[in-house]
Amino acid sequence: MIPYTVAVEALLVIGNQLRRLVETVQDVVLFCVTVLKSAFRPPFYRHEILEQVHFALVGSLGIVMFSSLVAGQALAIQLGRELTRTGTKSELGHMMVISVVRALGPVLTGMVVASRMSAGITAELGAMRSSDQIDAMVAFGTDPIKRLVAPRMIGLLIALPVLTILGDALGVIGGGFVGLAYHLPLQSYYNGVYKYLTPSNLLVGMIKPFFFAVLIATVACWKGFTSAGGAKGVGVSTTHSVVISSVGILVTDFICTKLIFRLLQW
């Protein structure tokens, strides 16, 4: 039997952890609201925005294209194998659209961009916090949210949907070449793609990147702003940023899918 004092101490520890978790979620949500309000109000730092778009879009283009192509081909191999067994290999294009455009493409692109951008943003802002550059910016009358965070948010809001479209296209195209190995003509494959590339399927896949972009930018910038402890603290914050963004994308994908399907039923 657990002693009474041990049980009380355990409950207190759990309660403190839950309280810190709720406070952290509250701080992140308030930070996100502040950034969104600031991002769409003048003045706009156009140079910083273009720099962040280039960093997010061009810098992530190669790895997103490669990973999407390979993942699409791997998925097509699995689907083609099962569809051939059931005599419905002509449905490969249909299944690829549902799998890639709705789910795999946005999530894979979001995870790839999150692993790259979260680390870069958190490390950069964390280094600025450690060297008191952010405090100096405030002292000179510059809003760090407006100057540092808003351009990164806008850059991701522009870059991530574009990268998702390219990733979806390459995933579907890769599936078409795999279909040739199962003796499925490209024309038959792309007929299935065009048939099921409907506005509702596109809607499910294209809304998610905007939520992913807000999540990645918010978590990365918040961890960078709250980084402490010098170089070691920056490293810890960078690790936390990547982990939280990656897990958050999976959770956000589930929530978005449920809500969108519920709305489409209406």
Tag the structure with descriptive keywords.
about 270 residues; mainly alpha; about 0% strand; globular
Short description:
By secondary structure, this protein is mainly α. Helix content is 88%, strand content 0%.
Commentary on this structure:
- The chain is mostly helical and 266 residues long.
- The protein has one domain.
- Helix content is 88%, strand content 0%.
- It is built from eight helices and no strands.
- It has helices at residues 4-39, 46-85, 92-130, 133-139, 144-181, 186-196, 199-225, 230-265.
- Helix 1 crosses helix 5 (144-181).
- The longest helix has 40 residues, at 46-85.
- The radius of gyration is 22 Å and the shape is globular.
Topology at a glance:
Elements: H1 4-39, H2 46-85, H3 92-130, H4 133-139, H5 144-181, H6 186-196, H7 199-225, H8 230-265
Strand content: under 5%
Structural class: mainly alpha
Helix content: over 70%
According to DSSP, the number of beta strands is 0
Uncertain runs: none
Note the run of SSEs as H and E. Answer: HHHHHHHH
Largest sheet: none
How far apart lie the N and C ends?
A: 54 Å
Task: Count every helix, treating DSSP H or I runs of 4 or more residues as helices.
Answer: 8
Characterize the overall form: globular
Task: Give the averaged pLDDT, no decimals.
Answer: 85
Oligomer type:
single chain
Task: Report the C-alpha radius of gyration, rounded.
Answer: 22 Å
**Total tally of structural domains:** 1
